[in-house]
Amino acid sequence: MIRRRTMLSSALAASAALGLAACTDDTAGGGAASSGGSDAGGGAPALEAVTISEDLATEPVVEFTAPLEVAEPDARTVVAGTGEAITEGATLIWRDLYVDAATGDTLQSWWQGAPAGGLTVSADTIGQAAYDFFLTATVGSRIALAGWQQDSSGQMRSLLQVADIDRIVSPLRAEGEEQPASGSFPAVTRAENGAPALSSPPVGDPPAATQREVLIQGSGPMTRPGDYLVMQYTGWKWSDGTQFDSSWDRGAPFGFVQGQGQVITGWDANLLDLPVGSQVLLAIPAADAYGAEPSEGNPLAGEALLFVVDILDAASTVSA
């Protein structure tokens, strides 16, 4: 998949990842998640010592005596939502905050302008324990997780995450008005599920600057810097048309915070100002992808790339 080029500039290495770190079986400190406060490590579950406000209309208030020991991962529902039940494969959007268990300080919060976040509920990607916990939740729930995350300096930190599950992303493919093709790039065909394919390899030299062509014009809200963007994509090498990656093949959309350097420049600069529901083709020179010079450590370095991207959701910051 497309890897992030840099860490987030905030204290956390990934704004939406504590839910995974807190609930997977292989996190630092070991142990399985507790969906109801079970004692997996011999001591009291961390969240038993934490009080979390239940007013869903306001930022969660998280209270405990610091430092709080997180000996085992813990997860529980604070307020049960009345919305749709979460099922296998669902991609969630949530509003969340992170609190340092050692100090009680809030590190970042959607209610204070930090990005939204989310994940796809799959045992293969988030671990069996996390998967089991999220299947107990519903849209509209406020959940809490205790676990560990690596900060931007590489240090593991004990954290609490409180998240209000806002929605399930749907549909999982672009929907809108077909746009006429320019003819400058290979024609795009789609499988029954929406997965794109190229009718032929690219021809000629790649563009000197990233070019964007809208294939389907969506009708949703416009994407903006700071959005938590959820997308499907497939990528091909310009040089020979071979496919090197696809979220469709993995069975899960990809999410990242737009405009914060988490992805290649060709994505960060060219997935803005698009209505949700759109599908776009991006022709990206090597300089806007993984660098113009080949590298033994990255087989895509020095390669111009072609992507077809479906914009599924764009969750904004509270100030947007």
Describe this structure in words.
The protein is mainly beta. The chain folds into 2 domains: 18-168, Chitinase A, domain 3 (Roll); 177-315, Roll (Chitinase A, domain 3), CATH 3.10.50. The protein has 5 helices and 17 strands. It has helices spanning 18-23, 123-126, 128-134, 247-250, 265-268, and strands at 51-52, 62-63, 74-79, 91-100, 106-109, 117-120, 142-150, 156-168, 177-178, 188-190, 196-198, 211-217, 228-237, 243-246, 254-257, 279-284, 305-315. The strands form 4 sheets. Strands 9, 12, 13, 14, 15, 16 and 17 form a 7-stranded antiparallel β-sheet that branches. The longest helix has 7 residues, at 128-134. The radius of gyration is 21 Å and the shape is elongated. The two termini are 29 Å apart. Keywords: Isomerase, Rotamase, Signal. It catalyses: [protein]-peptidylproline (omega=180) = [protein]-peptidylproline (omega=0). This is Peptidyl-prolyl cis-trans isomerase. Pfam families: FKBP_C. InterPro entries: FKBP2/11, PPIase_dom_sf, PPIase_FKBP_dom, TAT_signal.
Order of helices and strands: HEEEEEEHHEEEEEEEEHEHEE
Strand share of the residues?
25-35%
Low-pLDDT runs of 5+ residues are 1-42
Radius of gyration over alpha carbons? 21 Å
Mean pLDDT score: 86
Q: Outline, from the CA principal axes?
A: elongated
The CATH class of the largest domain is identified as Alpha Beta
Number of helices: 5
**Which percent range fits the helix content?**
under 10%
Structural class: mainly beta
